[in-house]
């Protein structure tokens, strides 16, 4: 029973100090004399004399010896009480610009029909063949925008506006064969590289302008495009077909 108890005490000591094993020990005793020597690793010169004397006694059948030895490998790497693991998440979104412009190419053909001129024989000569009123068109889409910094661009194919391609000769003091027009686009967005709530944005190409550009940050909203050809006051219009093309471009930067 006494040996079992000693064993339990030793195990408790090992559990309480896991960082290092206990040093090797040698205990010697001789009958009728009591303990004659205890040495613990690392051994020095005096310990060596104690061991030598007691080992000689044991060789002659005198006394006894008790040894303890404990060893265990250390941690494979330095122990760490706190571990931080950082995960880097990545993904990508393609740059895209969208503009819903109807389901067919015909939806993008803006036909003013007959552009009325003053044809009455009772008109003053200074008013004859002048435009009766402005030619106007409004285009609206509920889906437009880009998901990155972008440029909104408007380009006319001819700075003169709509041009008569039928080729009649005419007195340039009294007639003209082109109808100037302006284009104004309006939407809700933000300035380029701006992070803020969107607000009203506008881009206009005037009567005498060919193109214009406005830089924007990512935006999505409805867009309205107004085309306005005001009345030409001082000249009549040559008869024929007037054509012009305007291109709206949304371009991710």
TrEMBL record:
Keywords: Signal. Residues 1-21 form the signal peptide. This is DUF4402 domain-containing protein.
């Amino acid at each position: 029973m006494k040996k079992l108890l000693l064993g339990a005490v030793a195990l408790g000591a090992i559990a309480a100090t896991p960082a290092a094993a206990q040093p090797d020990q040698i205990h010697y005793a001789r009958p009728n004399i009591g303990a004659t020597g205890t040495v613990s690793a690392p051994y020095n010169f005096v310990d060596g004399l104690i061991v030598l004397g007691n080992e000689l006694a044991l060789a002659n059948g005198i006394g006894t010896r008790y040894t303890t030895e404990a060893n265990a490998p250390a941690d494979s790497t330095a122990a760490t009480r706190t571990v931080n693991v950082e995960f880097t998440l990545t993904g990508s979104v393609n740059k895209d610009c969208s503009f819903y412009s109807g389901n067919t190419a015909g939806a993008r053909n803006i036909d003013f029909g007959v552009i009325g001129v003053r044809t009455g024989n009772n008109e003053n000569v200074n008013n004859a063949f002048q435009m009766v009123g402005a030619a106007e068109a409004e285009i609206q889409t509920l889906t437009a925008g880009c998901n990155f910094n972008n440029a909104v661009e408007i380009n006319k194919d001819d700075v003169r506006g709509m041009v008569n391609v039928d080729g009649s000769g005419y007195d340039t003091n009294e007639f003209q064969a082109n109808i100037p027009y302006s284009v104004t686009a309006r939407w809700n967005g933000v300035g380029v590289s701006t992070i803020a709530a969107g607000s009203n944005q506008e881009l206009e190409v005037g009567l005498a302008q060919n193109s214009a550009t406005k830089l924007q940050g990512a935006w999505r909203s409805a867009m309205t495009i107004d085309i306005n050809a005001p009345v030409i006051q001082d000249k009549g219009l040559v008869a024929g077909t007037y054509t012009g093309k305007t291109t709206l471009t949304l371009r991710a930067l």
